[in-house]
Description:
The structure holds two protein chains of two kinds. Chain A is mainly α. Helices cover 78% and strands 0% of the residues of chain A.
Amino acid sequence: MFTPEEKAEILEAVRLMTSLQKAFPKNDLGDPDFDGHRIDHLRQRAANEKMEMYKVSFAKKVIAVATTFLVGLLASGFVSKLSALGVLP
Amino acid sequence: MLTMNAIAKPLSKALFDSDLIAVRLLLAIGEMCWAIMLFWPGDSFVRPTYTLMAAVAPETVWAVLFLLTSVCQISVVLFAAMHTLAGRIFATWNAALWVFSVVAMLVSVYPPPAAIGMEIAGMAGALWVWARPLFLRRWHRLCAGGYCVHT
Lengths: 89, 151
């Protein structure tokens, strides 16, 4: 049989498990919804990845627009300078 | 080799995962400086750079607008009202004020005045303060079931 120390440990483990179960919402059977919690986390992870994709895609557009704008501006300035110096007609 | 992804990922963090309080405070300082200099004795609006702004309203009106905007900007930061309806309406007004002021100065003179470099940066900042929540809200809606912010 169990020693008094072992009994105390088992009782403590049961107490912890009971309070842990209270952290979960109940499913339609009235039990703690561990599986629903897992699925919820998977959904959150998928949604976060999708959000990240939107952000990175926007950043790529910003880079493309900024690069095009700057290169265009510098090129037009360069051509104007060359024309002013008489290098270009 | 520097790839587009290597730049885009940190840029997306800087654009979307940073707070914009420093931008708002810089805008508040800029707006306060505009108000002080427009209230300063003398006629600033005779200069060609301000031709279009002068056509819209007298110098003192612009000074009052910038002063009120600066006070509101500081209040939004102090009372953390960025995401309230009033905060959003203010962000719209603020972006409009900066866009109009900068465009008005750019179209009034040629070549573009180098001294308004920080005003152009301020306009970009004000536009981003206004636009970023709109992008994020739209993307949150598009993400499955609205789960997005839990990390």
